Structures are given as structure tokens and as C-alpha cells.
Amino acid sequence: MEVVFILVAPAVPENVGASCRALKTMGLQHLRLVDTEAHTHKQARILAHGSTDVLGNARVYTGLADALADVDLAIGTSAKARHQWRSLTRAHELGELIADKAGVVARVALVFGCEASGLSNEDLALCDLVSSIELPAPYPSLNLAQAVMLYAYELRGLRATTQPEIQSVNGSDAQQYRALREKVSQLLLEHRYGADSKLTKWAMELLPRADSKAIGFLHSMCDKLLKR
């Protein structure tokens, strides 16, 4: 399973460099950047001391949707109270939640917003889950690099491994979770529950919490219902 960290529109070069160092320290290496040039500044290279390989290999995208195109499970990070999500996954819960999807998810992304305003509601809508860090006091808040370090620490046991060969959806397909989301969406749509319906939104928010065994069961159930 490959774990990717995505920084959306970071404005401070030092934060990009420090994030690279945080990832390297925790045994992680995959960084993606969206709508920014901060990584090209000298200060980013200085703060990335010992991890310039992570900085140099970072992939750059013009939009978050493009950065998530090959991601199976996207997890947005946010401290905002105003968004559509009914529940948040705490940072310390993510390691076990992701590990439980071994074999059905090939690539996981942690998505972080800019320093000034974080992820927009539109960005969060592109994610499967939203996570937050429990803090005794909301202020002073964590800056971007600090948040990356804490999440990297929580996911340090999920170091990138060789991606398994993609097999059939009903076998050990490493993208089985993404296929399940499509099936559930199709099933709900056939019963006239569109993307904006409460039932669909709630189902899509609960699906990422399923483990590998539950995902396999839901595949079989959806197949039978779709055939009928």
C-alpha cells in the first residue's frame, strides 16, 4: 500500500521543506503539491535538509482532482466546524483504519490545505474521509508542517510496499474499494437516490470505514441486487 501526502496551495516554502523532512523521518516518501511554486524556493530546500530527495521527487498538479485521480482512498484534514461531514476520523484512528483495507486499497492520500484557510468545502467534497487532530486548546493552532509531522507519525507503520498486481474486482483487487463506491452509487441511483440525497451522502461517508472483509461482503451484496 502506498501512502501519499498532498499539500494544496502551500504558500510558505519553509512549510514545504519541513513537511519533506517530517515524511522522510517517518519512513514516508511520496509528496504531491497542488497549485504552488513554494517548493522551488531556496528556503524549501534549506528546511528539507536530509530529505531533498522527497522534495525533488514531489509531483506537482494544477488541481486537487488531478492529484487524486489515481488515489483509492482520499483523507482530507481539517479543523473546520463548517462542512458537510457528520463525523470526523481522529488522527490516531487512521493507522488501523487504513491497515484494515490491506489488499483492497493500493494508494491512500492524506490531503492538507493552505496555511491561511485550510481545505475548502469543495476540496473536502473530493475526499472519502475527513480527519482532525484532537487538541487540548484550539489556539495556538498547528501550522502546516506540524500537522504533516503528526499525521506522518500516526502512519509511520504504513510504509510504502510493492504494489500488488491488480486482479479481478471480486478477487484480491487492490482497487476493490473504489469499485465498491461505484457499485453503491449505481445501485442508489437506480433507486432514484442521487449524489445530493441524504442517503447517498451518508452511505458514502460510512463506506470508507469498512474493513477488507466488509468490503468483500458489500461487493457480493451489491452484485446480487444489481442483477435483480
TrEMBL record:
EC number(s) per entry: 2.1.1.200
Top-level lineage group: Bacteria
A Pfam family the protein falls into: SpoU_methylase
Keywords attached to this entry: Cytoplasm, Methyltransferase, S-adenosyl-L-methionine, Transferase, tRNA processing
Annotated Gene Ontology cellular component terms: cytosol
Any one Gene Ontology molecular-function term assigned to this protein's record: RNA binding
GO BP annotation list: tRNA nucleoside ribose methylation
Gene3D superfamilies attached to this UniProt entry: 3.40.1280.10
Keyword Transferase on entry: yes
Listed CDD domains: SpoU-like_TrmJ (cd18093)
InterPro entries: Alpha/beta_knot_MTases, RNA_MeTrfase_TrmJ/LasT, SpoU_MeTrfase, tRNA_m1G_MTases_N
Location in or out of the cell: Cytoplasm
Reactions catalysed according to its record: cytidine(32) in tRNA + S-adenosyl-L-methionine = 2'-O-methylcytidine(32) in tRNA + S-adenosyl-L-homocysteine + H(+); uridine(32) in tRNA + S-adenosyl-L-methionine = 2'-O-methyluridine(32) in tRNA + S-adenosyl-L-homocysteine + H(+)
Domain tRNA/rRNA methyltransferase SpoU type, chain residue ranges per copy: 3-153
NCBIfam families: PRK10433.1, rRNA_methyl_1
PANTHER family: TRNA (CYTIDINE_URIDINE-2'-O-)-METHYLTRANSFERASE TRMJ (PTHR42786:SF1), TRNA/RRNA METHYLTRANSFERASE (PTHR42786)
Subunit and partners: Homodimer.
Function: Catalyzes the formation of 2'O-methylated cytidine (Cm32) or 2'O-methylated uridine (Um32) at position 32 in tRNA.
Family: Belongs to the class IV-like SAM-binding methyltransferase superfamily. RNA methyltransferase TrmH family.
The protein's name in its UniProt record: tRNA (cytidine/uridine-2'-O-)-methyltransferase TrmJ
Gene: trmJ
